[in-house]
Amino acid sequence: MKAAILIQRWYRRYIARLEMRRRYTWNIFQSIEYAGEQEQLQLSSFFSFMLDNFTQLNGSSPCDPMTEEGGVARYELIDVEDSYCGPHLSFPLNVNHTNALLSTYKEQKTLHARYVLQLLHETKKFLEQIPNIIHLSTSYYKEITICGDLHGSLDDLLLIFYKNGLPSANNPYVFNGDFVDRGKKSVEIIIILFAFMLLYPDHMHLNRGNHEDHIMNLRYGFTKEVMQKYKTHGRDILQLLQDVFSLLPVAMVIDSKVLIVHGGISDMTDLNFLESIERHKVKSALRLPRRTMDSVMATRCGSQVKGDLRRRRRGSAQRRNQRKKGSSGSSSSSSSSSSSSSSSSLCSPRISSRNQPRPRLSSSVLSPTLTSYVPCMDSMVSIETQPREEEEWKQVVDLLWSDPKIQDGCTPNTFRGGGCYFGPDVTRTLLERHGLSLLIRSHQCKQEGYELCHNGQVITIFSASNYYEVGSNRGAYVKLGRTSSLDSSSTKVSAAEDSALKALQEKLFAHRTELMTTFQQYDKNNTGAISLSDWAQAVESVLRLDLPWRTLRPRLARLSQDGNVEYLSCFENICPNQPPPLVTPNLAETLYRYRTDLEIIFNIIDKDHSGLISIEEFRHTWKLFSSHLRVAVEDSVIDDLARSIDFNKDGNIDFNEFLEAFRVVHRLDTKDQHQD
Amino acid sequence: MAEDKDFAEAAVSEVHKKISDAFNLFDDESNKTVDVREIGTIIRSLGCFPTEAELHEIITEIEEEELTGFIRFEKFLPVMTKVLMERKFRPIPEELLLQAFEVLDQEKKGYLEPEELKKFMTQEGEPFSHDEMEEMLSAAVDPDKNVVFYKDFVAMMTVRDQ
């Protein structure tokens, strides 16, 4: 009896420890993930600048104007080799085609680029006809299934189809955005989803997510995936996808009761206004809409003029109201926070006020002959449409990026850097105003795959299982009326934990200089050790991840004999593999910290996505980048670095290898090479 | 003397932070409350080995008069600080744990049949729930021999728990 109690006590404590570790692992992943998104958004003005510069430098890309001109679609010019053994598509699609696609992908085969382009082309044509907000009715069906983020996880999509049945007239689906990025099978997922949408246009519905955004794709892997899978036609595919993504509807309403959006809402969200916007102009949340030729076309085109003016007037009236509210100030706290929340929709003032962007030639909707109209339309268009477009853009960004919060009110989403946090009152008000009863959204990974909040008025649904790491979370889908979660293997804490800690150690390393400065401030006597609470405070003040540092300490840093933290030890488990010679520690650290951003920039410069750029371009990028970040790096250091990276001395740098050189490895792996 | 006092204060504030970190991990609503069912996990995750009975005592002490199902941080903090400062519910040393398993292994085989272990754990002491039992067995049973080599099991769990 005593023995039994002892074992039970011990085992229960073990399980409790495990649960705690699971929770902080979760916190680490989430903090780091959101911090990454935030950086991305903070750099958005820089990316816009880069895109403008480099698209100008490189001129129009050769493929675009031809895409739809003269009735000859480019994909028809692509030959399908006899050796190709995948499925052949013909339009309109039938069930045999979707079945063939599914089995092709189950066998790890690919669809020919010709058919990919044709499918995207058909998808674009289809999406152009559908409204911004789709109204569905379930009266014809018993149930409708709603799935959340998939993020390139084909297994989860196939699992959903397996458990819940393929989409069909009797089995309708809504996929709520974030199909791509992060996972390795984003291409497969969008092909399958688009094919089913074309096959069952009334029963398969896709919402846009914040990752259906070509600038996000540069960072989170989809661009790379497309280029790897389609070496010759990858660019054309990406180009077409930019349009397809921006044409995806932004919201669904089921039975006039349930609103489905990817992220959430803000206190400025106006569904009636959203019904009327030109959604395809919002190409990216990281980039304010530019006055594309579309708007010029719209104002010239008779039938659209009226509608456009009417909307514009409404738009400006609305803005006047906002301003009034804002200026009266004291009217109510929620209104003042609202104006900040909508302006929180990222960096708008900075970009819009500065250098009026020129229409981009590479934008595939343009036809080159119209370019000459731009200058004369300029003055008129810029006064009239700019604010309207900004408002449209903000409204869309709020739908795609926002997260719910527990407290009332609406505040800027500082964690992600875009959209807002909306409280239960914001949900209640919007639902009441439109006679709705429920908001279904995705956008956040939940351990069980779903979560209820705001007194049950908001459901979060996330369908990619094991999102952060094997065992980190379940995937789920909602069948309207009841919630069911998918099976997934039982949680394997330690695997997920290791990878979370590794990510955290990378963070520590990337901020080494700042951390050291802070540590040394506490370490007055230069002993190399500081108290646990000083250490925790120092780390938090630099990284700002809001993590339980005391609990994590044993996994990050050693204690000295007198119980203080030997702060140098938190950089020990990590060191750059084969640091290129002549690189100062400082530069290695800077490179390390910004490597994702660097990669995006390289991808922008490296127009053909060959993975090679010239030394000259490398230098140029670094200069732009360091001036933007105000990181001073001497030219000679960059030159040395460039030379040392160019291992085969052919004057080109392979960026993948370059990044590999800085990959973080555990110390054990590098012991041999690294004894200094 | 003053230094001693400072030292004591620093120690208390360190303990407070530790408790608050652990509490916050379970405070899903960020409103300084946790589900009462998580209290045991929090206390144990802070390195304590209470029995279920001792745990129940603590909960009774910190529960609201009107049972809400939630525990407030203000109530939890002083009680937990006391527990940690007085070093109650100390860890069970590995040797003692092994002895406990040996007591159950009456024939001194060096292992337990899954059914044996299950009988002890679900019928004696403070019985395991079905879920707890299944979880323990899934980790404890050697997949080849289908028995519990408790010595290995204890060693494995102690290492992983470090």
TrEMBL record, chain A:
Keyword Magnesium (UniProt): yes
Compositional bias ranges of the Polar residues kind: 346-356
Segments crossing the lipid bilayer: none
Lineage top rank: taxon: Eukaryota
Comp. bias intervals (Low complexity): 327-345
SMART domains tied to this protein: EFh, PP2Ac
UniProt keyword annotation of Manganese present: yes
PANTHER family reported in the protein's UniProt record: SERINE/THREONINE-PROTEIN PHOSPHATASE 5-RELATED, SERINE_THREONINE-PROTEIN PHOSPHATASE WITH EF-HANDS 1
Sequence similarity: Belongs to the PPP phosphatase family.
Name this protein carries in UniProt: Serine/threonine-protein phosphatase with EF-hands
Originating organism: Anguilla anguilla (European freshwater eel)
Automatic annotation (TrEMBL), chain B:
Protein name: EF-hand domain-containing protein
CDD domains found in the cross-reference section: EFh
Record-annotated EF-hand domain positions: 14-49, 92-127
Transmembrane stretches, start-end: none
Annotated organism of origin: Anguilla anguilla (European freshwater eel)
One Pfam entry name: EF-hand_7
A molecular-function term among this protein's GO annotations: calcium ion binding
SUPFAM superfamilies documented for this protein: EF-hand
InterPro entries assigned: EF-hand-dom_pair, EF_hand_dom
